[in-house]
Amino acid sequence: MGLERGGVVMVTGAAGFMGSHLCERLAGSGFEVYALDNLSTGRIEGIAHLMGDERFHFVKEDLLNVDRLAGVIGECDMVFHFAANPEVRAALTDSHIDFQQNLMVTHRLLEAVRRSGRAKLMVFASTSTVYGDARVLPTPEDYAPLKPISLYGATKLGCEALIASYAHTFGLKGLVFRFANIVGPRLRHGVIHDFIVKLKADPRRLEILGDGTQAKSYLYIDDCLEGVFTAMEDFKGDFEVYNVGGEDQVNVKAIAEIVAEEMDLKDVEFKFLGGPEGRGWPGDVKAMLLDCGKLKALGWKPKYSGAEAVRLTARQLIWELCPQRT
Question: What is the reported pTM?
Answer without folding.
Answer: 0.96
